[in-house]
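I am still getting used to backbone structure tokens and would like to learn alongside you. To get us started, please write out a protein record for me. Once you have written the record down, we can walk along the chain together.
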Amino acid sequence: MSKNAILIDDDELFRAGLTRLIDSFENFEVKLSVGSTEFKRLAEGEKSNKCYDLILLSVPMNTDEGIDICETCVRFYSPSPVMIISNFYSKNTVMKAIESSVSAYFTKGISPVELESIMIELTANKNFPDIKLELKVRQVLSTEEQMNISFTEAEEQVLLLVCQQKNSTEISNDLGISVRTVESRKRNMMLKTHSKNMIGVVMIFMRAGHSQNA
């Protein structure tokens, strides 16, 4: 059975081409292909009918409206993964998107093969996988010199339990917060340390001389 996707893009030509491409993938079908204005109008009416497996968002992410649509997608269709495809990927833009709990951030230069592969991976893993970032997007996040690492108290609570080899569900139960909140804190720590996973976070945090906190 094909997995259902939403495609949101204000460029009608690009949207039509991407829709045809995704529909050609064996396991996917674009059930809704709309511009941002129509999406915002439909979103409230759709929130009780969360029947989509993946949300593909391709709007200018360097604007407040783009971030707002991103947050709307995550809020209304959680836990369905939200994948951004945008040629706007400054450090500030990517950080804001990740803070909104998107699942992937790629540029419009992504190849069809890679796009299908990422879509399969995002929809196959229901346990809130680590965020998927295109290499050039990840490089943008690593361009600035790494400053002294500073985690919030809430992030350190999660880090301590990670060091105790607890998974996100166990951490959620221990702290009385949602699994999505746990994953959001993990993402923030991975961004601050430019790590691909929590093992990298722990290693870097220890090397920085913060072992007493973990």
